[in-house]
Amino acid sequence: MKGLLLVLLGLASAQAQPVSTLIVEAREGLVVVDGAEVGTPGDPVTLNAGEHEVWLVDEIDAWNPRIDSARVELVEGDTLRLSMALPIRTRIETNPVGAELTLLAADGSARALGVAPVTVDLPEGTLAELVAELDGYVSQQRAMEPTELLRIDLAPEAGVRVEPMVQTFATRRAARRRTLIDIGIGAATLAAGAVAVYYKFEADELDDRYRDPESLQRGDETLRQEALRLDRRSGVALGAMQAGIGVLALRFVLR
């Protein structure tokens, strides 16, 4: 009897807890509140009154999802409509590659984007100027337009002659069969190196998500185990690449 009374009291307490309703308005994405997926845009979500962290993401399990976030304060009994939008993922390329990119915001602040080509997430309606700078070329500044691909062509500075980069190697005439073998070993070595780098980047990204305090998957043990597995694969591929380099070096020495 006492146990039944405690259950009834618990139910009454839960029903008496102040609640509010949140509706996220967006064209696409999934809604996540306080780290838990709660539905899609337009779905009413019942939450306790108080402060909550709200995310709009394009894919929960994506390697690098697009995210819009907001912190809201819900009042008991009220319905809050929150407008959100996923950022536009923009790839910025320059011709030639290697230009330093800087984003100048309308408030005068500057954000270094890195060396082109780069990929950045920009909110819709971003008001900013994009500056591209490269030694020997005229700096370009243009309005930033969030789009899938943005390409900037750089012109050489007046009086500066920019020569294409050419690298030559001293070679010796070799039999066709030997050359084909060398090409095959070289291709396999490059492929092993590419695989090693790919798995390493994947493992590092998983590890970042596992450790990042703001990650939705912070502390997820399966994420850590997957990162370790990818690290091992990267090590195997790196060993194969080093072996290929050694074989190539030996073949050139013995020629």
Q: How many beta-strand runs?
A: 14
Q: In angstroms, what is the radius of gyration?
A: 28 Å
Strand content: 25-35%
Q: Order of strands across the biggest sheet?
A: 3-2-5-6
The assigned structural class equals: alpha+beta
User: What is the string of SSEs from the N terminus onward?
Assistant: HEEEEEEEEEEEEEEHH
Q: Termini separation (Å)? A: 93 Å
Helical content (DSSP H or I, runs of 4+) = 25-40%
Q: How would you characterize this protein structure?
A:
With 255 residues, the protein is α+β, with helices and mostly antiparallel strands. Helix content is 33%, strand content 32%. The chain has three helices and 14 strands. It has helices at residues 2-16, 176-211, 221-254, and strands at residues 19-25, 30-33, 36-39, 44-48, 50-57, 67-74, 79-83, 88-95, 100-105, 110-115, 118-122, 128-133, 140-143, 149-153. The strands form four sheets. A four-stranded antiparallel β-sheet has the order 3-2-5-6, with no helix packed on it. A four-stranded antiparallel β-sheet has the order 10-9-12-13, with no helix packed on it. Strands 4-1-7 form a three-stranded mixed β-sheet, with no helix packed on it. Strand 2 and strand 3 form a beta hairpin. Helix 2 packs antiparallel against helix 3 (221-254). The longest helix has 36 residues, at 176-211.
